[in-house]
Write a structure and sequence with these properties.
333 residues; single chain; 37% helix; five-stranded mixed sheet; Nucleotidyltransferase, domain 5
């Protein structure tokens, strides 16, 4: 058995150890793996772009007299999707690895615009990785300015899939064609109302902004910011699970400082008995956060779990089931 270290051309360090799946490591982690090799008497095999000056420098820095290192130059194995190491780190929420790659001179703007490290971290809700990239000077998309109440927050925004726009266009064209061909002007209603409903949905969900600064959170739907609310002081958390992967789930944060009154529209995130209890409690308000495929998940849920599990907040069964399966290590913001 051996620990395999693969140096990638893009500056990434991939480590595979006995019983551990290959993963991206930082320079600090590499030293830790060398200590594991010494403690467990594992030999080390260094592969990939080992002749580069960066790889040679790191190997010189971590070599130990008590750990045999075999150097075997090879063609580095590419990451899936043709991504670079910093894209993998950002999309996976590996904020230490993101910081390490940037510190070693790797470009933080690798990849196409819709797959830049910042965009990938943003889509998955990885608060720490987004903060690292922002502080390092990554390009921030338009419309991502934090509210005045949370000037140091990182701001997440939704990017709706392209099919929503094409679906609206198809309804308009289809309705007009049918109205002319069949001469039944009721199809004009389809051409007008269908796209209008899609545009309204896009305005609510597509223009959603989530500002996060540690335990503080603000939400903007369309125009106004709601919050900040403190995740450590929630009365209850609900989750209305989406019925398909193309729809958004709705997190309900119940507290007394911001949002709308807890009422009928917020009940779908809670069991009937808990919803009745919350609705009968005076002064409770609710802030809704949309979350779905390509927006906030799973990084936001991990950030949320860290704070919520340490509070007396009442959780719906759906919220409990999601948060129970997540790690609760402190986020690095």
């Amino acid at each position: 058995m051996a620990i395999r270290i693969e140096f990638l051309i893009d500056g990434g360090i991939r480590v595979e150890a006995p019983g551990v799946a290959p993963g991206l490591a930082s320079a600090r982690m590499l030293k830790g793996w060398m200590q594991v090799a010494a403690d467990r008497h594992y030999p080390v095999v260094a592969e990939g772009d080992v002749n580069s000056s960066a790889a040679q420098s790191m190997l010189d820095d971590v070599r130990r007299d008590d750990v045999p290192v075999t150097v075997a130059p090879s063609e580095p194995t590419p990451w899936p999707n043709g991504w670079t190491s910093i894209q993998i780190a950002a999309a996976s929420g590996l904020d230490e690895q993101v910081h390490d790659l940037i510190a070693r001179g790797i470009s933080m703007n690798a990849g196409r615009r819709d797959q830049s490290p910042y965009r990938l971290a943003l889509q998955s809700g990885h608060v720490g990785a987004v903060a690292v990239l922002r502080d390092a000077g990554a390009r921030i998309p338009p419309g991502s300015q934090p509210p005045a109440e949370l000037p140091n927050a990182v701001v997440f925004r939704n990017y709706l899939p392209a099919f929503t726009r094409w679906f609206a266009i198809a309804l308009t064209v289809g309705g007009l064609v049918l109205a002319v061909a069949i001469r039944h002007w009721a199809f004009l209603v389809v051409a007008a109302v269908g796209p209008a409903m899609i545009l309204v949905g896009n305005a609510v969900i597509g223009r959603t902004r989530i500002a996060i600064d540690g335990p503080l959170l603000s939400v903007r739907h369309v125009a106004r910011w709601q919050g900040p609310i403190d995740l450590r002081e929630l009365a209850a958390v609900g989750l209305a699970v989406a019925t398909s992967t193309r729809m958004a789930s709705r997190w309900r944060f119940v507290q007394r400082t911001a949002g709308v009154r807890f009422g009928r529209l917020a009940r779908d995130g809670f069991e009937p008995s808990l919803a009745d209890e919350l609705q009968q409690t005076p002064d409770l308000r609710v802030v809704t956060v949309y979350s779905g495929r390509g927006f906030l998940s799973p990084g936001f849920e991990r950030h949320l779990a860290h704070y919520v599990v340490a509070t007396p907040a009442r959780l719906s069964t759906t919220a409990q089931s999601v948060l129970d399966g997540l790690g609760h290590a402190p986020p690095r913001v």
